[in-house]
Amino acid sequence: MVSLCPFTFSHLSIQPVYPTVNVLQGNPVTLSCLYNGSTSTDSLLWYRQYSRSSPQFVYLVGEAKFEQKAEPLVPGVSAVVNEKKNRSTTSRTSTELSITKATLTDSALYYCALRVVAQ
Q: Ig-like domain: from which residue to which, for each copy (predicted)?
């Protein structure tokens, strides 16, 4: 089981599509978060936290196809950003963290975070 936590600050927000996701060992799983912000400058980060431990960095991804992976690498993990433009000036964007084959060590609390770059 994995869980995600929402965050809101001023006009920016990031929240999980599903707060809890259950997956059988060996199956793929995708965790998704929606956010509103500037997709050209902001970065989205993924962390995971085991019980009684500090959060650990897993993946950073930006709209400009920039990626940074955890060291040591978390096997079978990838992330993407998907932008959805509306007719208005606002856009709603999602980020997804995919695990190709879930294992018991993937059972944790996952955080999707938004790193905002001041303009």
A: 16-119
Q: Would you give per-residue pLDDT tens digits along the chain (119 residues)?
A: 555 555 445 567 788 888 899 999 999 999 999 887 665 667 888 999 999 999 999 998 876 677 778 888 788 888 887 766 554 444 567 889 999 999 999 999 999 988 876 65
* Token pair recorded at residue 18: 């599903």
The pairing of strands 20-21 and 29-36 is unpaired
Instruction: Please give the tally of structural domains in the chain.
Output: 1
29 φ, ψ (degrees, to nearest 5): -145, 145
d(CA 95, CA 43): 10
Q: What is the CATH number of the domain that holds 13?
A: 2.60.40.10
Whether the bond between 72 and the residue before it is cis, its omega within 30 degrees of 0, is: yes
Give the type of residue at 8.
T
pTM value?
0.78
Both tokens of residue 10?
């001023």
Cα 119 to Cα 95: distance, rounded to the nearest angstrom = 22
